[in-house]
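User: What would this chain look like folded?
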Amino acid sequence: TATWVSPLGLPRLCAVTRINLSHTRLGGIPAESRRNGNLVELSLDDNRIGPAVPEDLGRLCFSLRVLGLANNMLREESAPIKRLTNLTQLRLAGNRQPGYEVHDPRSGLKLDGVDIPVRPAG
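Assistant: Here's the prediction, encoded as structure tokens.
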């Protein structure tokens, strides 16, 4: 049976096999989930993770079969993901392409250091 948890329960749940933290506005992959040796599925779609995946993900999540990182702010598939050799499903769609730029909607000027498009007020 699947066990889905909220971010508040992560520190106490080291035997969980599935974690869904999609749509939670996370800016990174929680260290607690990366240390779980029993983790089979980690869903982190539709967050603010980026621009890179933490280096220790590939070393610590050796049991991981499903990884969802779609619609985040990752710049490219990184070495930690390539080390996850047991993956059967990897979701990366909707991340930033190399050369992605955000422009101010009013002036058209490039906004340095910004990954999320800015909405004009009103």
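The longest helix spans residues 31-34. If you want, I can go into more detail on any region.
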